[in-house]
Design goal:
The structure holds 2 protein chains of 2 kinds. Chain A is 0% helix and 50% strand. Chain A has strands at 4-7, 10-13, 19-25, 31-38, 42-51, 54-57, 65-66, 76-78, 87-94, 104-105, 109-113. In chain A, the strands form 2 sheets. In chain A, strands 2, 4, 5, 6, 9, 10 and 11 form a 7-stranded mixed β-sheet that branches. A 4-stranded antiparallel β-sheet of chain A has the order 1-3-8-7, with no helix packed on it. Chain B has no helices and 11 strands. In chain B, 34% of the residues are buried. In chain B, the strands form 2 sheets. In chain B, strands 2, 4, 5, 9, 10 and 11 form a 6-stranded mixed β-sheet that branches. In chain B, a hairpin with a 6-residue loop joins strand 4 and strand 5 (45-51). Chain B starts with a strand and ends with a strand. Classes of the chains: A mainly beta, B mainly beta. The interface between A and B is medium-sized, with 21 and 25 residues.
């Protein structure tokens, strides 16, 4: 089954404790992206990757890091989480990099930073 | 990036009635506008999209209209059913960086 998987689905942590949210897709997509969803703000892009070893900032990259060592994986790293990073996070992938192709979203990771 | 304004934020309709969600954008060079549906506990899923060379597109009970002059586009759901209850997001592909800007979302509730 074609899908985007994220782990963990739920995470409660404390300020300053480094964490990683994994993302993996099995559709051989070149484009991958991370979004955060907050009430009243919709989906905002954090980082994206057009291909292996190519990553770039989205609209809200502060406090986040990513890596793209393999085509299928695109982990999101929070080196020192803060309460304002409490949010619902989605990973997405697409077969095209032009932006007009359908983005396939993972099931989401709900993160709470205390 | 510039935001897309989406209205209303919540919408409650009787089963069988129509639902309309409207989005307004500011980038006159934008030419791709998708709509995503997010069911409870799931990620968003593309349901329909429209490009600027057409004014309307239909897929069964769902239709999207685009008015480039007024810079707004709308999602129309006819004969609503309980399974249409979800959060709907409009989006605009920005012409300056080819990234999607999403609206804030509309929570649609279909009353049985």
């Amino acid at each position: 089954e074609a899908q985007v998987t994220q782990n963990p689905r739920y995470l409660i942590t404390v300020t300053g404790k480094k964490l990683t949210v994994t993302c993996s897709q099995n559709m051989n997509h070149e484009y991958m992206s991370w979004y955060r969803q907050d009430p009243g703000l919709g989906l905002r892009q954090i980082y994206y990757s057009m291909n292996v070893e190519v990553t770039d900032k989205g609209d809200v990259p502060e406090g986040y890091k990513v890596s793209r060592k393999e085509k299928r994986n695109f982990p999101l790293i929070l080196e020192s989480p803060s309460p304002n990073q409490t949010s619902l996070y989605f990973c997405a992938s697409s077969f095209m990099t032009s932006g007009e192709a359908e983005q396939f979203f993972g099931p989401g990771t709900r993160l709470t930073v205390l | 990036g510039e935001n897309v304004e989406q209205h209303p934020s919540t919408l409650s309709v009787q089963e069988g009635d129509s639902a309309v969600i409207k989005c307004t954008y500011s980038d006159s060079a934008s030419n791709y506008f998708p709509w995503y549906k997010q069911e409870l506990g799931k990620g968003p899923q593309l349901i329909i999209d429209i490009r600027s060379n057409v004014g309307e597109k239909k897929d069964q009970r769902i239709a999207v209209t685009l008015n480039k002059t007024a810079k707004h586009f709308s999602l129309h759901i006819t004969e609503t059913q309980p399974e249409d209850s979800a959060v709907y997001f409009c989006a605009e592909l920005r012409s300056n960086d080819y990234k999607l800007s999403f609206g804030a979302g509309t929570t649609v509730t279909v009353r049985a």
